[in-house]
Amino acid sequence: MNEDGGFDLIVIGAGTGGNGVARMAAAAGWKVAVVDSLPYGGTCALRGCDPKKMLIAVTEGVDWARNLSGKGLEAQTSVDWPDMIAFKRSFTDIMPGRIEAGLEKAGIVTLHGQARFTGRETIEVNGETLAARHFHIATGARPMTLNIPGEEMLITSTDFLKLPDRPDGVVFVGGGFIAMEFAHISKRAGAREVTVLEMMERPLGNFDPDLVGILSEATEDLGINLRTEAKVLKIEKDGPNFAVTYETPDGKQTINCDLVVHATGRVPNVEHLNLEAVGVEYGGKGIKVSPYMRTTNPAIFAAGDCADSGPNLTPVSAYEGRIAGKNLLAGKDEREVRYPPTPSVVFTLPQLASVGLSEAVARDRGLDFDIHFEKTAGWYSSLRVGARHSAYKVLVEKRTGAILGAHLLGPGAEEQINLFAMAMGASLTADRIKGIIFAYPSFASDVGSMV
User: Fold this and answer.
1) CB-CB contact of 19 with 108 (8 Å)
2) Is there a contact between 355 and 343 (Cβ–Cβ < 8 Å)?
3) Which of 6, 67, 286, 297 makes an SS bond possible with 386, Cβ 3.0 to 4.6 Å?
4) How far is C-alpha 171 from the geometric centre of its chain's CA atoms?
5) What is the Cα–Cα distance from 113 to 126, expressed in whole angstroms?
6) What residues have CB less than 8 Å from 123, skipping those under 6 apart?
């Protein structure tokens, strides 16, 4: 316990990568404070994963009705946008207060404001100087700066999740998670024209190209304009609407819309912290950390999207926070980050999921493996729900039978990928997986046929 009036630990950031550390320290008797300039909860709970998934849940109803039309289900579905946003707010509006109250109940001081380091053991918040023996940084990420004329006219994903009314014509700048997921939401919610502008040759560049190709077909079949090799040059006001000019191999083109969304990616949110004042090194990928989540200042730790560490995923942030908290309390580098097989999912419909090595990376490493790849629209699991776009690709090492990577597209992919992650973490071979008896018929029961 700190007896000089200061804190033992100040956590900067009240999201997944920070709150767990604060709770661990408080439970050990430390005097702890948490500070955030935004409502408590972080991106995932308030501005990302959770609210997004609630909108997707609503549009899944539209998808089920369309896929099963003519198969016995007679339904006329439509999305009431204000009601859908109200449904989302039924979760997001209560979370900050609930999270903050939980921290206070644990004996943690909760503060609101922008934190900035002013010395080796001090930060400034709202003009007040606070001292601590240790700091933990979990400030997450922010939309990257695009440096294009008219950039100030873009709205962010946070803004999109708060729109009171459905946009009729919307352009997404970028082709990653945010663009593809929100484009699917918008179109199923009834938007007249939805366009995704991706500057690379395909969207979702970190996922398997064969499965992305099938997802792109599904996206275009839905009525979304998916334009690749499209570099946005400028955004201009055009009366009440906007004009987005972009360049393709065929020349310059302009598209008009009533909303333009920033979906090009996010970068570590650290510039405002004045890290130079405390000797914490950082770069374009975030704060430099050791495998123990310690920064270049031994008294300061960092975790999550603000750190140059593992994948920018909520469960990874929580895992890194636990490692940082254990090392803080131990007073030494006792626990090392060792990332288990970590799945990620794009919650389009159909869902795209991945864990482990891609085919390209496995080849670059000189591994000898079999590729199990098949389109599965004809499989029972797809037929029974009317899914027309589904497939899998699983990489199996020839000598050992180890699963090197799994890439899935279709209904059930968000849960099937977790089974692959568990199997890989437990070193189950393809033969062992084939020997498991799953409940049938289920999405899980397909896993044995994929290896």
Assistant:
1) no
2) yes
3) 67
4) 20
5) 6
6) 10, 12, 35, 115, 116, 117, 129, 130, 132, 135
Indicate the pLDDT class of residue 3, thresholds 50, 70 and 90.
Answer: low
The per-residue pLDDT for range 408-422, each reduced to its tens digit, is 999 999 999 999 999
Note the pTM of the prediction, 2 decimals. Answer: 0.95
Supply angle C-alpha 332, 335, 336, rounded to 5: 115
Q: What value does the mean pLDDT take over residues 300-329?
A: 97
Q: Give yes or no for a contact between 376 and 390, defined as CB atoms under 8 angstroms apart.
A: yes
Containing H/E element for 25? helix 16-27
Nearest Cα neighbor of 324 from 7, 2, 5, 16 is 16
Q: Edge to edge, what strands does the sheet with 251-257 contain?
A: 231-238, 241-248, 251-257
Taking CA atoms, 372 is separated from 239, 397, 398, 443, 446, in Å, by: 53, 11, 12, 17, 13
Paired with 286 in beta bridges are 283
Task: Measure Cα distances from 281 to 13, 276, 285 in Å.
Answer: 18, 7, 11
Chain centroid to CA 307: 15
Backbone phi, psi, residue 125, to 5°: -135, 115
CA distance 63 to 123: 50
